[in-house]
Amino acid sequence: MKKHITNKFDKKLMPTLPRAIFKGKIVVVLNESEAEKAVDFLLSQDILGLDTETRPSFVKGRQHKVALLQVATHDICFLFRLNILKKSPAVKRFLEDTKVRKIGLSWHDDIRSLEKRIDFTPGTFIELQDEVKAIGIMDLSLAKIFANLFQKRISKREQLSNWEADVLQDKQKFYAATDAWACIMIYEELMRLKETGDYELEIVPEEEPHEADANEAQETAKE
What we know:
By secondary structure, the protein is of the alpha/beta class. The protein is built from eight helices and eight strands; from the N terminus they run E-E-H-E-E-E-H-H-E-H-E-H-H-H-E-H.
């Protein structure tokens, strides 16, 4: 039976799905020595998932620098605490690498944020938003794409937590690691579907403008 996907995932279905969570090892990187070892290991891999986290600002016009860079393989995720590492030469070396496939979502935004923390020339990165369009998926968020492909929910509850806290809580670590790991899962599944054609795409009818506005207002109120 072919995998059934839609061009746009119904967000109202999200609460009904089982939660997806990274089950591998999570390593917090706090100093340059740890960063060097982590980067050496990561650059020996063939594929990596990436994401970043920034402390939210609730003051108009104020924006914090990116605080965390999370990089995952299938079974281990390193959390680079950039607010502590600052201008890390190891992280710079990682970001400039051109050999290892690094998968991210809306990564051009992450690069701009990282450039405010570290001066680097971007290496090899693959943008998931470009890849999903190739099979007809129009959603741009990680949570919707993952739910569409795997029928599992990625919780975004910790997104607005304090990523510059002295010690990250376990729920923050799992959230960060899951987002990075999910990028690999999505990319590999997209490549499988493109190669095999083992999917059927349902085109969801467009909502009427007034219905779309009402639904958007309801969703915003819930978030």
